[in-house]
Amino acid sequence: MSHAVAHAGRALGRHARRPLTQAVLGTVLGQGLTLLATPLLARLYSPAAIGAYVAVLSLCLILASVASLKFDVAVQRAAPQDLPATVAAALGNTAAATAVATAAAWALRGPLHLEQLWWLVPGYCMVMAGQQVVTAVLLREQDHRAISSNRVAVAALIVAAQVGVGHAAPTAAGLIVADVVARALALGFALRQAGAHAGWRPAGLGSYARIFRQDRALVWFATPAALLNSAVVYALPVLLSVAYPASQVGYVTMTQKVLGLPLALVGQAVGQVFTAQLLRPSAEPGHAHRLFVRQLRVLGALAVLLVALIPVAPALFTALLGPAWAPAGQVYAALACGYAAQLLVNPVSQALNLYRGERTQLLWDGGRLLLIAAVFAGAAWMHAPLMHVLTAYTVVMTVSYVVLLRVIDRVLRGARP
To answer: For residue 118, what is the DSSP state?
Structure first.
């Protein structure tokens, strides 16, 4: 009996050291903390405060996804001698983009309802984008343990800060400030870990110029594609707030927070491991495609779980947040298939950038954006009910991701899309 237990313990230890397990475990623990704290936060903060917080969060997620001009990808594939200069270039891009984002947030503070919150955007965007660059360094070095522990630390710090602030200043600004401070603390720790790998020594201007020339496709193609993709993924609450009551937007926001975002972040963790595995040199024919199929199996199981939750979603929201949030279950039912398709395809879509498919990614993102814009324009013209708009949005998202999945499959098989 003791031998069996010891063997099981050793097997579990080996499994926990696998990159995929470490990445998913860190994300699951972090998002688990967030999910457990959501009922408490829903009672500390008003729906209006939570809605405004998520709107600013979504805006900053969009900005942070492109703040480095996708040089986080350049960091992962840089030659060893170019790594310090590439990291410095990525952080420099982030600082410049944050300045532009600040000006944009101020200019759009009226239409985006940021009159009292626009000044929080720069710090929020900076810490998010900096975290992406640092994570790229850790991914390059296969330091999945550090990435996993950082995810847990970020979630724990955010929850602790927001619960603490909620007793003193239960406002949207309080939620955002607590989030920014928590992320900044975690980023400082992660910078030390990444510095041990990259080395923060300065590089000459010639090195920077060569790196920009070498990775200019990331700037001209991958960055616009990432911006379009992030806008489609995160901008839904902002778009809906223009035409629908705050209470309905709140249901959509809470659906994304409680169920959509945590599972999407699990998919992001799987995608980071997939990217790292693709970067490993291999002489085996079909190696990349086999990795692709393997990751799809993992993601497919999570996507099925998303759809399977539809019948119990109203009861789940009621149990977690109270009877007032039961209508969010109907919103979840309308969005679930789109979430499932996003979860299945987004994590493996980075393969297009790694295999120089930036133009293909840009064309796909542009086409999807046009379709979604048509959905919202048609809804505004017809004054369509919210549930009809969400259903049409889900159909567009699902079909778009099926097309992208086929393109990625062809690229990894060696054919040109």
So the answer is: G
